[in-house]
Amino acid sequence: MMPPVTNAPVYFGNFVVTPQVFHMTAHSFALVNIKPLLPGHVLVSPRRIVPRLADLSHVEVTDLFLTVQRVGRMVERVYNASSLNVAIQDGPDAGQSVPHLHTHLIPRQKADLDGNGGSDAIYGMLEGEEGDVGMHLLEKSGRRPKFPAVDDAQRKPRSDEEMAEEAGRLAQEMDRQHL
After folding, report:
1. Which residues, other chains included, contact 175 with Cβ-Cβ below 8 Å and sequence gap of 6+?
2. CA 178 → CA 74, 77, 173, distances in Å?
3. What does DSSP say about strands 103-108 and 42-46: parallel, antiparallel, or unpaired?
4. How far, rounded to the nearest angstrom, does the alpha carbon of residue 97 sit from its chain's CA centroid?
């Protein structure tokens, strides 16, 4: 297993996610998801903890979206995707579960969700319990009681070791990625 990208603590809201981080810039970081909706589902977030896109400075917005673009190219290549969902749930009424702005990058393949209602099923997955990153992080930390799973039994929260392994692999891929 590769060492973490940084030894300094990286926070996603009030959660320490340092082992999940696979890429950092001056103002942003990318991390693997505890419970990805599809293989390669990652998050890109500003380093400064702000809840909304409008709270970022011009420099932070530029850095965030350049990071989204670069990480998106990499996950498409690594996960053999033909397309990519890029989503921001900007505030609690939009489904944001952690009050720290983050962008979901979800690599897609033709017919990958045909058994779940088609390509647009991803939006319901993001809005539902299965896409609730905050709840999954709270359950992992023991700060919220676990409720019976209502989503696909195949999608289990991943262990710290699994996430660190993927983060290490994706960090190597980011090093290979052209700017």
Report:
1. none
2. 9, 12, 10
3. antiparallel
4. 12
Active site residue 27: no
* Order of strands across the sheet that contains 42-46: 21-24, 28-32, 42-46, 103-108, 83-88
Nearest to 74 by CA among 118, 113, 44: 44
Residue 147 to residue 170: CA distance in whole angstroms: 31
Per-residue pLDDT of 84-113, as tens digits, reads: 999 999 999 998 989 999 999 999 999 998
Q: What are phi and psi of 54, to 5 degrees?
A: -65, -15
174's CB contacts (< 8 A; 6+ apart) are 22, 23, 30, 70, 71, 74
Return all residues near 67 (Cβ < 8 A) that are at least 6 apart: 23, 25, 28, 30, 44
Residue type, 24: M
Tell me the whole-structure pTM to 2 decimals. 0.84
Structure tokens at 60: 């932070």
From 102, 104, 136, 178, the catalytic residue: 102
Helix (H, G, I), strand (E, B) or coil at 63: helix
